[in-house]
């Protein structure tokens, strides 16, 4: 089971908490907004380096994003 959608949804959720759009997150993270759009849609894989950059943009630690995505992924796995 692919975990990309789970991390993408967690990034989107955190971005919504901060009330910033993808363009602002892209600026804060020094990444392209089209890249972040694909991450949030679950179409793009993050490297460790880009995860760190997104975490800076979201004002959070990478492990918090990973942990929340893991919980979601595990719940989906158990429901199959």
Compressed to H and E, one letter per element, the order equals HHHHH
Helix/strand-derived category reads mainly alpha
Mean pLDDT across all residues, rounded? 93
> How big is the Rg?
12 Å
Strand content: under 5%
Envelope shape = globular
Q: Biggest sheet: strands, sense, closure?
A: none
How far is it from the N-terminal to the C-terminal residue, by CA? 10 Å
pLDDT below 50 for ≥5 consecutive residues: which ranges? none
Helical region count? 5
How many strand elements? 0
Helix content: over 70%
Notes on the structure:
With 80 residues, this protein is mainly α. The chain is built from 5 helices and no strands. It is globular, with a radius of gyration of 12 Å. The model has no long low-confidence stretch (mean pLDDT 93).
């Amino acid at each position: 089971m692919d975990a990309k959608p789970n991390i993408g949804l967690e990034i989107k959720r955190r971005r919504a908490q901060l009330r910033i759009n993808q363009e602002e997150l892209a600026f804060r993270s020094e990444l392209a907004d089209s890249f972040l759009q694909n991450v949030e849609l679950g179409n793009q894989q993050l490297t460790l380096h880009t995860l760190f950059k997104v975490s800076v943009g979201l004002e959070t630690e990478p492990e918090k994003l990973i942990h929340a995505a893991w919980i979601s992924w595990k719940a989906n796995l158990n429901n199959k």
